[in-house]
Amino acid sequence: MALFQWTNDLSVNVKEIDAQHKKLVDLINLLHDSMKAGKGKDVMGKVLNDLVDYTVYHFGTEEKLFEKHGYPESQQHKKQHDDLTKQVKEVKSKFEAGQTTISVDVLNFLKDWLNNHIKMTDKRYSGFMNSKGVN
Ligand code: FEO
Predict the structure, then answer these.
(1) What is the pLDDT of residues 59-87, one digit of tens each?
(2) Residue-level pLDDT at 26
(3) Closest ligand 1 atom to 24 CA
(4) pLDDT by residue (tens digit) across 80-127?
């Protein structure tokens, strides 16, 4: 069974963003599957790299929407993005340096962070974006 199941209560009512969140869920699951299958450092490193890159791309998509439409909670929201970006980049650097492995704890941290961020923070912009015709 996948580590992270997409459910409709994760929807933010913006198609492009839901699609990106689903891709992040898929990448976390792929990393989990790769770990369970005992994949080597090269494969794990590639998936981790894809996850970091796609996370940065996704945060950029949301932040561009905030700027374009004048979202009033942009600053607090961006702070959360910046904090996670810093943390996942640190995991990636340590992994590449051979100082850490991708453990169940790391994967659970990523899953919980994304789940909580979508439900508690991303969903706060749903009504605002829908009112601007973004859906
Ligand atoms: Fe979907 Fe704010 O990250």
Answers:
(1) 999 999 999 999 999 999 999 999 999 99
(2) 97
(3) 1
(4) 999 999 999 999 999 999 998 999 999 999 999 999 999 999 999 999
Which H or E element spans position 87?
Answer: helix 74-96
Distant-in-sequence contacts of 32-39, Cβ < 8 A, 24+ apart:
32/2, 32/3, 32/4, 32/107, 33/2, 35/102, 35/103, 35/104, 35/107
Give the ligand 1 atom nearest the CA of 21.
1
Q: Is 122 in the pocket of ligand 1 (CB under 6 A)?
A: yes
- DSSP annotation of 2 reads -
**Which residue segments constitute the domains of the chain, with CATH numbers given?**
14-131 (1.20.120.50)
**Secondary structure of 34-49 as H, E, C letters:** HHHCCCCHHHHHHHHH
Residue nearest to atom 2 of ligand 1 (CA): 122
